Amino acid sequence: MKIRTIFVLALLAVLSSACGSDDEPPITQSTMKDVNHGKTMFAGTDIYLDEEQMLICPSEDYCISLCKSKELESIDAQQVNMSMNHMMKVAVGNVYAINKTDRIRNFKSGKCGLEVGAPITYVKVTEFIKENDKVIGFHYQTKSSTAERGNLPAWDTTYRCQKMDEDSWNVTLDLAYGAYEITMFDEDYRFSVTNAERNNINLEISHRWVKEDHSNDYEQRLLVEYTLDSHIYIRYGGVCTRAIVRQK
Question: Rounded CA gap, 152 and 155, in Å?
Answer without folding.
Answer: 9
